[in-house]
Amino acid sequence: MELVLYFISVLIITAGLFLWRNKYAQIALVVLFLAVQTALLSVMFIKPQARWLEFFLNDSTARIFTGILTITSAFAFLNSFIYFNKRNERVLLRSIYLGSLTLFFGCMTGIFLADNAGLLWALTEATTLCIAILIYHERTKESVEATWKYVFVSTIGLSFSFIGIILLDMSSLNPGAAGFSFSGLLSQDISVENTLLFQVSFLLILIGFSVKMGVFPLHTVCIDAHSVAPGPISALISTSLMNVGFVAVFRFYRIFASTSVFLWASNVLYIIGFLSILFAAVYMLKVKNYKRLIAYSSIEHMGFTALGLATGGVAWFAAVLHLLYHSFTKSSLFFQVTQIIRMYHTKKMYGLGSYFVRNPLGGIVFILGFILILGIPPSGMFFTELIIFREMIANGMLWLAIIILILFTVIIWMFTKNIFNILFRPACSDIARNISPVKWWESLPQLILLITTLYISINPPGWLLDLIRDSVSVNPVF
Question: Which of 30, 272, 340, 455 is 20 to 30 A from 176 in CA distance terms?
Fold first, then answer.
């Protein structure tokens, strides 16, 4: 009943944001949505393992990622209103943006709770439409191109996933078992009738959801979307939407982990993870757009979580915790990038500089975000990466760990060079003459989020660690 009320509330609030054009009324509706979202999250913790409408299950994975979504949604709305004010946004565009964003959050919440493969796929497809409207928000030539590319590739990719889901059902000896729910499939032994068809189904599912997770091979549209989307939307593409892809892959991969093709599926994920990190490292060597630079960093981190899934054991735990750190840190960096764009009026790195002098608090945010995202101690990502590397070496993948470390060195070098140039190098005269000042308090939300992430890195709550352990407990190696 609670989930039904949640979805009804989301639809009503979305309609209100579309139709009610008064700014203060829209702020009130956004606050109402955040209250509804927080109320649902509270119910999820009060009623663990609750099942709603037979198709939604409140398991530990759902609680973790819904919690991340709830926190990032509050910061996304806050930074969106700052973004509107500085652009003197037209009322109609603001209404479309806020309505689409609210519906987007509702769809992602449904995905995290979905226990049915078909429903998860349908809601994931719905996020394509919502995010496409948000990518197109600024109505430029570049945003049009990025939007249609995203819609086209996402639709094709998710079509592959849909075919993969059908083949997965056909290749087992008990098709349609347990209503094709994830919990039902995990509670029984899956007998594979056609191994080749079973393997093809995994490939298609993984390829399709790679467009949301942001890993090879359909990761490129995410980079284009980052380049043109408003800063708050780029933050969501890099965090919440990529978490959607991870959860989808994770739920299907757990099914394959209990079958005879587990080792083969793990090798596929190793290849996907390695190619994603390789792609990020190579393209960061020649990137000239700082939004794309941070976007390539997201590809790297999602590729590394794919390696964590492939490795198994404690690496599953580390991969989920890694995503929590990544979500808060990367969203903060993209929120801060919105200020850089407004200050320098360009997304190109050429000629940029003196950001620390012009916006000291924003510079502190960038330095702290830089430390956390690159996994420099005391960043929590240092410890999650260490765990995954340790498990890879224990599994006989020392050679792969060494290659990944070399690629990480390239990524750290390029990220450091470009970010420090923006922070400390003097800006060229043409750009310096046109710099627009920003308010210092606009960096406070990002700083709060990063300090929270730093605290969780140093002293992770016991209940959070227990929740993550429970979410990966189905792993037969853990």
Answer: 272
Q: pLDDT digit string (tens) for 428-462?
A: 878 878 888 888 899 999 999 999 999 999 999 99
**Residue 309: partners with Cβ closer than 8 Å, 6 or more residues away:** 249, 250, 253, 266, 269, 273, 315, 316, 319
DSSP string over 380-437 = HHHHHHHHHHHHHHHTT-HHHHHHHHHHHHHHHHHHHHHHHHHHHSPPPHHHHHTPPP
DSSP string, 357-383: HH-HHHHHHHHHHHHHHTT-TT-HHHH
Residue 192, SS3 per DSSP: strand
In this structure, the chain runs to a length of 478
Assess contact for 60 and 319: CB atoms under 8 A.
no
Q: What SS3 class is residue 414?
A: helix
CB 392 within 8 A of CB 274: no
CA 348 – CA 134 distance, rounded (Å): 22
User: DSSP labels for 224-286?
Assistant: HHHHHS-HHHHHHHHTHHHHHHHHHHHHHHHHHHTSTTHHHHHHHHHHHHHHHHHHHHHHHTT
- Euclidean distance between CA atoms 16 and 31, whole angstroms: 13
Say which DSSP state 349 is in: -
Alpha carbon distance 283, 285 (integer Å): 5
DSSP string, 314-328: HHHHHHHHHHHHHHH
Alpha-carbon distances of 330 from 234, 262, 297, rounded to whole Å: 10, 32, 9
Element (H, E) at 54: none
- 2 with 25: CB under 8 angstroms? no
pTM exceeds 0.85, yes or no:
yes
Task: Give the residue among 384, 359, 369 at the shortest CA–CA distance from 328.
Answer: 369
Please classify residue 96 by burial: count the beta carbons closer than 10 Å to its beta carbon, then call 0-12 exposed, 13-18 middle and 19+ buried: middle
Half-sphere exposure of 140 (CA within 13 A, CB side): 10
Burial, 173: exposed, middle or buried (Cβ in 10 Å; 0-12, 13-18, 19+)? exposed
Distance between CA atoms of 62 and 52, rounded to whole angstroms? 13
In the three-class reduction of DSSP (H, G, I as helix; E, B as strand; rest coil), residue 396 is classed as coil
- pLDDT tens-place string over residues 132-182: 999 999 988 889 999 999 999 999 999 999 999 999 888 765 655 555 788
Which residues 6+ apart lie within 8 Å of 456 measured at CB?
324, 325, 380, 464
HSE-CB at 367 with a 13 A cutoff on CA atoms is 11
| Whether the Cβ atoms of residue 187 and residue 245 lie closer than 8 Å to each other | no
The residue with tokens 């991340």 is 68
